[in-house]
Amino acid sequence: MQILKKTAEIIHNCFSSSIENPNIKSIVDLVAEFRQELLLSAEKVPLKDRANFYVFIDGLNATLHYHIRRLEAASFAYNLCITLVYFTKWLGFNNARSLARFKGLISDFRKILGKSFDKSISVNEKTIEELSSNIRDRIGARLIIYTSKKEDVFNSWKAYLDVFGGFNPSKKDEFTSWYVNNPSITASHKHAISEILNMPISVGHYKNYIDFPKSNGYSSLQATVLIQFYSKFIPGLEFELQFRSKEMDDVAVSGSAADHKKGQTVVNKIIKIDDPSVLLRLKIGVDDYIPLCACVMEDGIVEVMD
């Protein structure tokens, strides 16, 4: 990412002005104010940077809508975590866990800055996938299966498509009958499963990092899941879904993949924040933290983590 000094200063000054505004009471307020400050400063941006500058503003529009919907999405993520673990139990596993996370504000800013000012691709040549507004992992969910066989991960993924993606209606009926008639599943958990099971979804951008791992050792199956526009609940919501074994997750979280990620240098000359969540709370009383949703199954016993 290459941003000339003048444009970088304009973006940084607009952000600083927004975060110091005493009228800002929420993350949504902050993003809206930041976007407005940028629009008012657009004429100061050098002409050769202006197209990229507006691409960044378009990314901010997506960021704004994401934060408006985050609380609603938190309920969805909670239900999804519960559903994935029970689904794994139905498949015959006794140990698994699922979790969901939300991309924080500063992480989101950094990503859309990178997409907006990537000089290797001109604005006019960018595809839809390369636009700053198109970030598919603002919400991420992960299922970790305690198995030593990668085939178990592939088979679980196929079963997920059969049951939740509508690929095999008879399998969906089998899973439905299993959870509805299972006396060990509480009514609230059955409600959570029903909500997820009845969401019409489409699955795309499938990536097989198990057979083709990243150079840093990262290994996983992942895809983008989109809730269809005609869903009664959060239509249009998009999230990244990952399936892993326990060993794959260990590498990603605390092994070579994690070390590589920590070692990556991030351009931090514009949004100069060392600890974004703490700074936001101190500056404007905003808490950018939504608790991580997690559900664990040990020896067949399912527990939702606080």
Tell me briefly what this model is:
The protein is an alpha+beta fold and 306 residues long.
Word description of this protein:
This protein is an alpha+beta fold and 306 residues long. It has a domain at 76-103 and 138-264: Beta Polymerase, domain 2, CATH 3.30.460. The protein has eleven helices and seven strands. The protein has helices at 5-19, 27-40, 47-68, 70-90, 105-116, 150-164, 169-180, 187-197, 246-254, 256-263, 276-284; strands at 96-102, 139-145, 201-208, 221-227, 238-245, 293-298, 301-305. It has a seven-stranded mixed sheet with strand order 3-4-5-2-1-6-7. Strand 6 and strand 7 form a beta hairpin. It is elongated, with a radius of gyration of 21 Å.
Please count the helical segments: 11
Helix content estimate: 40-55%
The gyration radius over C-alpha positions equals: 21 Å
Structural class: alpha+beta
CATH topology of the domain at 76-103 and 138-264: Beta Polymerase, domain 2
How are the strands of the biggest sheet laid out side by side?
3-4-5-2-1-6-7
Average pLDDT metric: 84
- What's the CATH H-level homologous superfamily of the domain at 76-103 and 138-264? Beta Polymerase, domain 2
| H and E string | HHHHEHEHHHEEEHHHEE
The CA-CA distance between the termini, in Å, is 38 Å
Shape: elongated
